[in-house]
Design brief:
By secondary structure, this protein is of the alpha/beta class. The protein has 10 helices and 18 strands. It starts with a strand and ends in an 18-residue tail after the last strand. The model has no long low-confidence stretch (mean pLDDT 96). 5-S-methyl-1-O-phosphono-5-thio-D-ribulose binds next to helix 2 and strand 11.
Length: 338
């Protein structure tokens, strides 16, 4: 992605590897500060994923892949490293996929971690090309959370088709849900769209109903953290209600994700583990507490949208309806085969 780094336009990724150091953009500081941090061991990687210095399913997977390579170079016990990395966040399937993929290439961990990440970048680019096919000129698109280059090493998942559509000369407008409580939309998606010169406005999370009712939204594109075999999928809390609204108003609702987000070991969305984060994220805005001391809060980080609301899954292999996902299954183990 193109960024303005110390006054100079640079092309960088959300995460990369300079053996034995993992480098990543600290996403907690954006848009105020673009800072690259160094991850020097597995404990530091665990902290970076858990505290969301890096976030977004494919980027978490990429960081985890590098983590196994780094643990190998540092002479750490690989089983312990894998256990710790996998315990950092429970919902994004890419994390588990990436760790198992690199571990399955014993003795070649660095080489295969790099291969994994290159393939995520290529997959994101193809998602962009495939998704562009369903975006018409003059479309107003709603997106939720951040499913851009920051979340997917480069290009993005939900934002990749939008980038390509803009490159091909289509006129677009993006409604950006702010995405409480961590504000990934207001902070990260808006920042990426601004860097790319894509026209957009941030809206409060509860504004979408009004915009749908006034016919100001043509389609929805979101990312995913885990997709079950039947097409039920987990994404950032608040996604489900946008899907119901799109359905009610007869608008298309697409989910953009690489194969590494599909968990074919589970039948439906009820089996997807949902992360619960600190209540302080809800009780605070930024660093300031806004709720009464005596009130407690509940903070599930993801919700599960039933497959019936999904028009199609935009993947690197094409676009699939929920009832066509069995055709994707054969690709899901491509990495893990000997
Ligand atoms: O909690 P986060 O910020 O990691 O959640 C991210 C999302 O929900 C994204 O939409 C999802 O990971 C897809 S990213 C390409």
């Amino acid at each position: 992605m193109k960024v303005n780094l110390n006054g100079k336009i640079d092309d960088i990724r959300a995460v990369w590897y300079e053996s034995p150091v993992i480098k990543m953009i600290d996403q907690r500081l954006l848009p105020k500060e673009l800072k690259i941090i160094d991850i020097r061991n597995t404990q530091e990687l665990y902290n970076a994923i858990k505290d969301m210095a890096i976030r977004g399913a494919p980027s978490i997977g990429a960081a985890a892949a590098y983590g196994i390579a780094q643990a190998k170079v540092l002479g750490e016990d690989l089983d312990n490293a894998a256990r710790l990395i996998k315990s950092s966040r429970p919902t994004a399937y890419d994390l588990f996929y990436a760790v198992d993929y690199v571990l399955s290439h014993k003795g070649q961990e660095e080489e295969y971690a790099k291969k994994y990440v290159e393939s995520i970048v290529e997959k994101s680019r193809k998602i962009g090309l495939n998704g562009n096919e369903v975006i018409k000129n003059q479309t107003r698109i709603l997106t939720h959370c951040n499913a851009g280059a920051l979340a997917s090493v480069d290009y993005g998942t939900a934002l990749a088709p939008i980038r390509i559509a803009k490159e091909t000369g289509k006129k677009l407008f993006v409604w950006v849900d702010e995405t409480r409580p961590r504000l990934q939309g207001a902070k990260l998606t808006a920042w990426e769209l601004l860097q790319e010169g894509i026209s957009h406005k941030i809206i409060a999370d509860n504004a979408a109903g009004l915009l749908f009712s006034r016919d100001q939204i043509d389609m929805v594109i979101v990312g995913a953290d885990r997709i079950a075999s039947n097409g039920d999928f987990a994404n950032k809390i608040g996604t489900y209600e946008k899907a119901v609204l799109a359905h009610e108003h007869g608008k298309e609702f697409y989910v953009a994700a690489p194969i590494t987000t599909f968990d074919f070991s589970i039948e439906d969305g009820s089996k997807i583990p949902i992360e619960e984060r600190s209540e302080d994220e809800v009780k605070k805005i930024g660093s300031e507490f806004i709720a009464p001391d005596g009130s407690s809060a509940y903070n599930p980080a993801f919700d599960v949208t039933p497959n019936k609301y999904v028009t199609g899954f935009i993947t690197e292999y094409g676009i699939f309806k929920p009832n066509e996902l069995n055709r994707l299954k054969k690709f899901s183990k491509e990495y893990l085969e000997p």
